[in-house]
Write a structure and sequence with these properties.
It comes from Roseovarius gahaiensis. The chain is of the alpha/beta class and 127 residues long. It contains five helices and five strands.
């Protein structure tokens, strides 16, 4: 039934697992990456529809990953939702300036996450 895939990029395993459960229950396929290098590798097969991207990652920041996505032919139109526990306005502005489609501050209501992903994927328009 799931026809859209969300790549969850977060090095906090418990948080990523919880997101995986929530999104699966809402009809999304999920894949996970714990660092930026793994995230960029996962994007190469073209099966990802939305990237849920944490800013603080062990090897490369979410900002760097978002920028790389926007500069890569074939990935430029990929939808990106950035998230962070440090929710300053400066980080939000930077993420959106680098091309993020949405920005969430942890902890966020799962309903807000699902709503953003539904908007970005067009899911539910015909429902």
């Amino acid at each position: 039934m799931a026809d859209k895939t969300v790549l969850i990029v977060d090095d906090e395993d418990n948080f990523a697992h919880a997101l995986d459960i929530v999104l699966s229950r809402h009809g999304y396929r999920t894949r996970r990456a714990a660092d930026g290098t793994s995230a960029l590798a996962a994007l190469q097969d073209g099966s990802i529809d939305v990237v849920l991207l944490d800013i603080l990652l062990p090897d490369r920041s979410g900002f760097e990953i978002c920028q790389a996505i926007r500069q890569t032919v074939g990935l430029r139109d990929l939808r990106v939702i950035m998230m962070t526990a440090r929710g300053s306005q400066a980080e939000r502005r930077k993420g959106l300036a680098l091309g993020a489609d949405a920005f969430l501050i942890k902890p966020f209501p799962t309903s807000e996450l699902v709503r953003e992903i539904n908007i970005l994927t067009g899911k539910g328009r015909d429902a």
